[in-house]
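Example 3.2
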Amino acid sequence: MGNEFLAGESVLAFDLETTGISTTNDRVVQIALVGSDAAGNAVHYETLINPRRPIPSGASEVHGIFDADVKALGDFSTHAEEIHNLIENSVIVGHNVRRFDMPLLENEFRRIGRLPPKPKAMMDTLEIVRRVKVSRPHNLGSLCQRHGISLDNAHTAAADAAASLLLFWRLTLDHALMFRNSIEEIERWLIHGKSTNDDSNLGRGLNDLEMLDPLGKIRIDDGHYIIAFGRHRGRHVAEIAQIDPSYINWLLSPSGIEDENSRNAIRESLS
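Structure, written as tokens:
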């Protein structure tokens, strides 16, 4: 198992919805913390927050939270104590959490004159996929689709937090070798790019994967077929079959993949 290093720890996935993308100037409008405490009890904390400023229409179009939804609610100071207690000394999981969610949250605490909580560690799924060289794209939606994780209600804090937690567990299992050391050593590897086990083993790129066809146009990664050329380079065949079926029709012709056995293998995987 790849997640034994977290035994006995409070592990919480964390996500924010905000008024914008500035970690210094924007405000929280929704926060979610989802996971389990050190005793293994389920934790599900989700709340809307009044940012005490108008929510820009562009932000509302993304997360679906409007001024009317929060105008009668408490501001960040109302929720600060509970949020602090949940995050303090927990292992925090999230997608781009180290560069966006946590810095923005820390500034909310500073605005009300409080020290921000200190998590025991942060396991950022964006950092992980880059370290183990998962093929792009690296946005949460694409990664969840690639790993068979449902992301209903995307861009709500609870849905994104839960999805990032499931993605994290999947990555720790698929790349278990990279998660055999202590939490501190793993976080150091994520931040500084030095493997916890083998300095040269930071994962595989496309060119390192087994070839399906003689020309290497399709690569094999844990039983999944990945396109290694053209406009869909780095994406799973199953993913492209859903969003660009005309491309798959071309791919499965002699003009796309010359080798008939390889074409048949792809057809079988999609059936």
